[in-house]
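Teaching note: in complex prediction, the entire set of molecules is handled at once rather than each chain in isolation. The prompt given to students was simply: 'Predict the structure of this complex.' The entities are:
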Amino acid sequence: MHHSKLLARLALATALTGVAGTASAVEISFFRFFGDCQTDYGTVMKASEANGECGIITALTNQFNAENTIGAKVVTQTVDWGAYYDQLTATYSTGNIPDVAVMHSSVLPNFSDRDLLVPLADGFANVGIDTADFVPAALKNATTNDTLYALPYDLHALLFHVNVDLMAQAGFVNADGSIKLPTSPEELIAMGKEFKEKTGKFYIASESQSSEGMMVRLWESFMWQQGVDVLSADGKTASINTPEGEKAAALIKAIYDEGLANTALDYPGAEQAFLNGEAGILINGTWGVDNYDSQAKSGKAVLKNYAVANLPGIFGAPKVWADSHMWVMPKDEGRTPEETEAALAFIKFLNDNNFQWARTGHLSVRQSVIASPEFAALPHRSEYAATADNATALPVVQNQRAIFSAMITDLNAMWLTGTEPADALAAMQDGVDQILRRNR
Amino acid sequence: MSGGGASGGSPGRRAPGVAFLFLAPFLVIYAIFLVYPLFKGFWISLHDWELAGGYREYIGFLNYEDLWTDKLFWRTVRNTLYFVALTVPTMTLLALLLALAVHGTGRLRSILRSVFFMSSVFSVTVVTLVWSMVLSADQGLLVPLWHAIGIKPVNFLAHPTLAMPSIALATLWWGVGLPMALFLAALGQIPQELYEAAELDHASRWTVLRRITLPSIRHTLLLVVVLQIIGQFQIFGQAMLMTQGGPANKTKTMVQYIYDTGFRDWQVGYASAIAMALFLLMLGFSMLQLWLGRKGDEA
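The expected output is the structure of the full assembly:
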């Protein structure tokens, strides 16, 4: 951590001595996940020429560094997604606190409740970020105890990514070209079996190991569809081991037990299986849309005919799990006014280019972007427009990462180790209760 | 380790101050990096102590009371003990066998010595990445093999009973170099005359091994076992990177629980309490080994 900063400074020092006389640069550190793609996008200076989360944020950073007139230079530090929050937390101890960092709205209360973030309302007003333009739900996500702590950047949700050719082969494409999707648990299993029979492929592909928890997101969606809130709004109780929970878990277990999905897939494995035309539906988030679309169009993937669908209302209302990426300024006593100015300028630049980020497949949080014709013209948008309305998030309570991990371990045990839904739910409830006890 | 008397051969006595002067660099580092953190860790474990944000509250032994009734904690203790039982004896035996096989002169032996030691230079990330690729049931190296013999690929790292042995296997491959090197050094120190005498007595190879080789390296054997116990109790990287503690916490180890509690959930006080429990466990097993070793010396 220290190292890269030092190296960056060295590089900067060399650059400065090289071009003597230029205005002194303000360097700010930028902490994020989304991956490292310097090889592909290190020299791309226009965000509009980049694809995917990693490409677009890298190009946006390059563009800001090239175009800003206040001499600001953003130095990116990429952290692997699994270790991101642990590392971000560690910076408060090491002192290398970043100036701008990405944060999920589900994690925000952990930081804001402990006074670890800079309130941003005044700064936004100074640089001209119009908070009234944000979708109200997004603004609410960025606010705790009536204080605005973040710039909401997207709303991301679970989707069905569909291989249309395989669906047609199974007879699941309607006359109007829309995809026929199940509307009940029984129908899901029946259609899955039929699909398997006619195509010889898996009906569903999804991350099924112990790392991403894609099925926990699906299970949570099924809970909301039945009108049950997994966590109470005060963050004190969880409704996991319930009849509704058991119905949802039983369906997920049945998907694997009936051989409709491959239990061996990890996250990249699931994406690969879908792109290789080995599965009809990939259950993954909005972040994949642009990537899969460009791969299908490139002709390099076996997948040729790609479509997107909202998560159907299998248990009732078509509610779907959602979260939100936001930009925050971690609190740092040592930050100079110039660094603060540069950080705010960068955040404003990101906000101005919210449309570029929306190209990844995420839902925009700016009303002006959503209303714009170019947003409507983005590929597949109309296919999952309803996701914005169906999106449901857990209440803003602390320790959601621990809660999420505890649920993954025991839910996934259903297909990895063969536990029964009732036992899995009892274990999930136990694990989550233990964490909730600590919530203050 | 070599428990013999001080054989410095120094003539007259010197002031004890001089001895301390020479010991000072070690003592200072030992105190700063081992003794102080140990007591600080214990002190933290008596608090509700958050990693970030500065929330601290003295709560006495509440963390330890929680620990006593924490099912996940006891599961991680069982998992860790299981892992230690899987790795320490096999690692020691394997290292000894390899050392016996590649000990001596010859080009092939010296090449093999380097080959067996080579895996130890990799970082845990590389090792786990390699083994995850080998063991993956989706794109793994073994998948064609399973297909060839017509069975469904085994998902080792997600298998409730095979996950931990898989991690142990990767650990063996990774860690066998150092104990092997220790055994090689010990083997090199056995006086050649003993073997010549044995040859004159027409002792069988088995007898030579049992009566000469093993007794001569038993201090090293003890060292290896104690080092292995201390090392393997702290298993973290392999499990964290290969299985994340899954499936269903079957491979969640004590250090991973400390990490999750301290760094993911910010409960440093509780994490320190777990760390103290781990310390006591390791101390107990190491003492037991040393005591058993000393008993052997007296006999």
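Point out the following to students. The longest helix of chain B spans residues 71-102. Residues 1-9 of chain B have pLDDT under 50 and may be disordered.
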